[in-house]
Amino acid sequence: MVSPFGSTLPLTNSPYNSRINSNYNSSLAHPKNYYLLGFTPGYALQASELNEVQELFFVNLNLTQRMNNSWTSDSRGYNIPFWEGMIPSSPLLITFTTPSRSGTTLTFTVTFGAGWYLWTDSVSKMSFWIYNNSAKTKNISITNSGSVGFIGEKLEISCCPNDTCSETQDSDIRDNSQGNTNTHNTCGASRKNIKLTDIEVRSSSVNLSDYFPVLTVTVSATTYTISFADGQLAYITPE
């Protein structure tokens, strides 16, 4: 399991066989980020999937508590944040080079660090914790105003009943009664996940199905501001 959790979550091992721990394996290029489990009526429900629902609930709850503490204990005096898009679990996950302004154009480099981000679905308006496994850096140039955020892909991952699986199938969500051995091919549930791919600049800070705002930037002929999407100042000029 990835930080801030220990190496193994409570229901990982036999006989419970929850897969939440392996879904966020730090060696994965893209963590599975299964934020919802969907059960198909008329099919058997795995006991391990009930354990995963329970464990995922407490992972989300624990991360929210940690985020609230991280933001309010920051020396810059932040309030508990909220906006539709992606909210870093700590403001320190977002780092900058010193911005340079020329007229009404601002250039800088921003890094969205590896760690947890609270994502809001643009349709349901429900929020879920998503893990970004590797730091993403982008050279930014914005004239007058703009938004900076993650781009990503929202997918439905179905159970794979065959030896060969497609990109939107996962053999690991077959019947898990034997603990991830995949010897039982019962498929009764699917997963929803988010795959984060890059940072993108857009003219609007609207949260969309493929774009999740983090920052807003405004530039005038005399000054500029780089703020989080809820209006709290993200970059403070070094003294």
In terms of topology, how is this protein built?
Blueprint: H1 20-23, E1 34-39, H2 47-72, E2 86-88, E3 94-96, E4 100-102, E5 105-112, E6 115-120, E7 127-132, E8 136-143, E9 145-159, E10 169-170, E11 189-202, E12 211-219, E13 224-228
Parallel strand pairs: 9-10
Antiparallel strand pairs: 1-11, 2-6, 3-5, 4-5, 5-8, 6-7, 9-11, 9-12, 12-13
Task: Output the keywords.
239 residues; six-stranded mixed sheet; 13 strands; elongated; mainly beta; four-stranded antiparallel sheet
Question: What's the gist of this structure?
Answer:
The protein has 239 residues and is mainly β.
Protein model, in words:
The protein starts with 19 loop residues before the first helix and ends in an 11-residue tail after the last strand. It has helices at residues 20-23, 47-72, and strands at 34-39, 86-88, 94-96, 100-102, 105-112, 115-120, 127-132, 136-143, 145-159, 169-170, 189-202, 211-219, 224-228. It has one domain (20-228). The chain has 239 residues and is mainly β.
